[in-house]
Amino acid sequence: MFEWACVKWLPITAALGCLPVDTGNPVNTLRAFYSAIASHECEKAVALAEGYSVERCQKIASLQLNEPITVIEEKKNSAVLQFSVAHELTEQKQRIATTATVALKRVGEQWKVDFSTIKSLNDKALPVSDTPKPTEVKPEPPASPPPSKPTGLLSLWAPEALQGKAGDEKIHFLRKPDFSAPSRTQPNETLPPLKPEYLNSIRRVKLPKDKKWVALTFDLCERADEVAGYDRGVINALRDKQVKATFYAGGKWMQSHPEQTMQLMADNLFEIGNHGWTHGNLRVLQGEPMQQQIVWTQAEYERIRDNLQDKAKSAGLVDLMANVAHQPAG
Predict the structure, then answer these.
(1) Where does a domain end: 125, 146, 179?
(2) What are the residue ranges in the chain where pLDDT is below 70?
(3) Are residues 150 and 282 in the same domain?
(4) Strands (DSSP E) along 126-189, which ranges?
(5) Are 63 and 38 spatial neighbours (Cβ–Cβ below 8 Å)?
(6) How many angstroms separate the CA atoms of 83 and 69, rounded?
(7) In the Cβ-directed half-sphere of 204, how many Cα atoms lie within 13 Å?
(8) Dmax of the chain from CA atoms?
(9) Would strands 245-249 and 217-220 be described as parallel, antiparallel, or unpaired?
(10) What pLDDT does residue 325 have?
(11) Fewest 10 Å CB contacts: which of 30, 123, 297, 327?
(12) How distant is the alpha carbon of residue 213 from its chain centre?
């Protein structure tokens, strides 16, 4: 059975539809369950498991499911899997690594996690260290043709610099989460308040009847316990095909990837949105911590845009900065 995960709809065209998530397989179901928890899609996690609650999900600050997942037993309508996961609770500053087993059962054509059967084989607190631990490097993307000469603001970089380099995709996990504030915590420009008529509303785009458009959106997230990567293969493919896209970037990700952020800002194909400082769970955060997720990200965007403007000015291209938004999209 497939559940459908759709991209967000915005007025940007691209040729890609909804992406299926296979829940007709116990291993993939467990992956989908923990992926939903990690991305704070708590309702989806609850739908994939019995004995699990939204309240429990909301207590998870960060989570990483490790491969491989081992099938201990599999029958027609039941399975037992062994896996390892590292997680951090919102009220704690310590990351816990767990190896556990859990049973899954078939409900109709779909598998479901029976969370009440989860059994921890061992729990251990990971040692506190500021040294990042690299994950396994992804396979190299297929070789692409030589890049064409950049134009506009992208001419501030050599073609090879825009293509990225091997290892950009790597994610480094920090033993000690980084909750420090950025160098600039307040944006110079204050966004206007939301109009009253837009409160508690959901935006949508009304398309002409003869048009079938899909908006591509990508998240550039970086939680407090990691230094995330940069998937150059995706960016290069979009540029090669001249496909527009929106990147919802976290402020901490922009801070650790200033050059790539400037390149995305400089590309007329792309726009950047605000995705919170560390992908904070806004269902749990309240008051100042919640505001910091948004405001710090706006301020970091401004700081990096200022750096891009300095580069453009030095190259005599400052007039092109009029095409670069002063604030990330909401």
Answers:
(1) 125
(2) 1-23, 92-93, 123-147, 330
(3) yes
(4) 133-134, 172-173
(5) yes
(6) 5
(7) 4
(8) 68
(9) parallel
(10) 95
(11) 123
(12) 23
Contact criterion met (CB below 8 Å) for 88 and 64: no
DSSP code for 236: H
pTM, 2 dp: 0.59
Question: 83 and 26 in one domain?
Answer: yes
Fill in the amino acid letter for 106.
Answer: R
Q: Are both 114 and 206 inside the same structural domain?
A: no
Q: Which of 2, 123, 102 is nearest to 50 (CA)?
A: 102
Q: How far apart are CA 268 and CA 242, in angstroms?
A: 10
Q: Are 97 and 86 in contact (CB under 8 A)?
A: yes
Task: Give the bridge partners for 329, in sequence order.
Answer: 273
pLDDT of res. 1: 41
Q: Which residues in 198-218 are b (16+ Cβ under 10 Å) and which e?
A: eeeeeeeeeeeeeeeebbbbb
Q: Which of 73, 99, 125 is the last residue of a domain?
A: 125
- Output the DSSP codes for 148-207: PPP-GGGGGS-HHHHH--TTTT--EE-SS---PPPS--S-SSPPPPPPGGGTT-------
Within 10 Å of residue 266's Cβ, how many Cβ atoms?
A: 24
Tens of pLDDT, residues 35-85 = 999 888 899 999 999 999 999 998 888 888 988 999 999 898 999 999 999
